[in-house]
Amino acid sequence: MKKYMKNAIEIAKKGVRKGNSPFGACIVKGKTVIAVAHNTVLKRKDATDHAEINAIHKACKKLRNHELRGCTIYSTTEPCPMCFSAIHWAKIDKIVFGTKIADVKKLGFSELTISAGKMKKLGRSKVKVRGDYMRKKNLELLKMWEKKKGKTY
Amino acid sequence: MKKYMKNAIEIAKKGVRKGNSPFGACIVKGKTVIAVAHNTVLKRKDATDHAEINAIHKACKKLRNHELRGCTIYSTTEPCPMCFSAIHWAKIDKIVFGTKIADVKKLGFSELTISAGKMKKLGRSKVKVRGDYMRKKNLELLKMWEKKKGKTY
Predict the structure, then answer these.
(1) Strand arrangement of the beta sheet that strand B94-99 belongs to
(2) How confident is the prediction along chain A (153 residues), in pLDDT tens digits per residue?
(3) B95 φ/ψ angles, rounded to the nearest 5 degrees
(4) What is the ipTM of this complex?
């Protein structure tokens, strides 16, 4: 499992170097990586271009299916309610995330303060959720972004 | 205001005729229509292609900005949590919707049962929300879709 989260962290770092926000995602089916993507909101100037949305878009295209049953998504940070809901719609089986929404809210991101766990409970979604995965490595990613000069949100 | 919701209904009907789900959205800034879009999940095989996401994508591209301040979005049905959150991220001022999430859940759509009002409250979002707008016309749209043979979700 570690290598899939490492993929998500690596693509997020690539995104940060290009001037994007520090978020990455990796979608896996069985042992096959289907899609990796970083956040592109700032560089592509699109509010919906979160890492998870970009990864789902790529995965749907690759598998030619709007349903991604049997897949797991690795997110460097807990998916926001937009991404959680997109994961629900895509019928992805499981979410594994590193840092929490609360961690990035502290950094200034205007998150809707609703955790993935709360979204799952309120929306009665079947998606499995596991947090705090490789938290240390994911915190390092956020620190890398924090140190960057001229960053925007 | 009516003509903007009519735009959303018309594009949704166009989408239904092409085999898509019965949802449309129209984004307006001042008196200018910035973008209209229908749901394309089934035809483009992408789980994230809800009408509102498609409309935000088009509007961001048109205005070359990931923030759509000063805009109002007209949705034929209450935005799902994915779309509500996308609207929050895009910093759209106001949502005006017709039918409710509860109406389309009855039709078989696997909605996360969280209303836009609840999302706003829980997420402490500043976006204004007005529902039940032109409800009758929007219910007619859902009925048009219900009568269609061979529909999928």
Answers:
(1) B32-38, B24-29, B71-77, B94-99, B128-130
(2) 999 999 999 999 999 999 999 999 999 999 999 999 999 999 999 999 999 999 999 999 999 999 999 999 999 999 999 999 999 999 999 999 999 999 999 998 877 889 999 999 999 999 999 999 999 999 999 999 999 876 666
(3) -110, 130
(4) 0.93
pLDDT digit string (tens) for A82-118? 999 999 999 999 999 999 999 999 998 877 889 999 9
The partner residue sitting opposite A45, judged by closest CB among B44, B65, B83, is B65
Please compute, for residue B98, the number of CA atoms within 13 A of its CA located in the half-sphere on the CB side: 28
- Using DSSP's 3-state secondary structure scheme, residue B35 falls into strand
Interchain pair B88, A46: CB under 8 A:
no
Query: Which residue of A80, A118, A122 is in closest CB contact with B85?
Result: A80
> What token pair was written down for A125?
């979604």
Look up residue B119 and give its two tokens. 């999302």
B148 by Cβ neighbours in 10 Å (0-12 / 13-18 / 19+) ranks as exposed
First to last CA, chain A: 30
CA distance B56 to chain A (A): 8
The A residues from 88 to 127 touching B (CB cutoff 8 Å) are 88-91, 110, 112-114, 118-119, 122-125
* Contact between residue B153 and residue B109 where contact means Cβ atoms under 8 Å apart: yes
pLDDT tens, B18-34?
Answer: 999 999 999 999 999 99
